[in-house]
Amino acid sequence: MKYAIGIDMGGTNTRVALIDENYRIEHRIQFPTDAEDPYKTIENICSTVSSFQKDITGIGISCPGPLDLIHGKVLTPPNLHGKWHNLWITKELEERLHVPVYLENDANLAALAEAVIGAGKNCRIVQYLTISTGLGAGLIINKKVFQGAHGFANEVANTILEKDGPSHGDILPGGIEAICSGTAIKERAKKAGLEITHAGEVNELALKGNQIAIHIMDEAKEYLANYIAGIIGFIDPEIVILGGSVALKIDGFVEEVEALVKKKVYPVVLPYVNIQKAMLGDDSGLAGAACLAFGKEEIL
Asked: Architecture of 3-105+282-299 per CATH?
């Protein structure tokens, strides 16, 4: 039996799992991420991996971007600070654990997990979008992550869809994340005077007939459908998988987006529009990290 280590690293917590070649999680340990000092987190990772007492094929790391995927470096994730920035994390772990270590952004690895063992497991070309706090994406071709020329493929959050449109944080005005993400839905509703705490409540108000909420939800679905129709026209994926809290927790969201997409493609393309909900839950990052480790090992 082959084993890989999946690491899901976030600004608050880090999860480390021992995963077998059938993608069963045998052990899982979580501990706080030190968002300022990476070396404390690295030592915790190393001691956890050593405690599993298995021969490890490789280690995959899921981490929020931006990342230097070509060289395996953390660049400037907003929730990791100080010495994390420009940290060559793959080298740091390889020197301590003496096994290959591979780094990918969290959306790419969620996409990879869905393509290998989730909703896209029977498909060759899989496009994944997560609509949650932010909006991320990943493209998987023949069970491999498509990184692009410089490792920034599918960094889509700042894709401009509306001139002089809404913005938040570092997202440019009219960027898809500023229109369609859970944060965007919530912030737009608050600015319009609605008393809500999350995107689901905006949807609830829309269902009750609140015109402001209806407008915000309709725009989120409309612009997301525009973007997916563009992806279909450009890439021709076999399946588009939608994950994240907005897509999975708002009843009817995925189905309504698919119906809108079907109005925005050529008739000859219509039979191939296939938009599905993600099947994997919170473990998609760990599973994707293991997929990465096993996949890299296969092509070396």
From this structure: 2-Layer Sandwich (3.30)
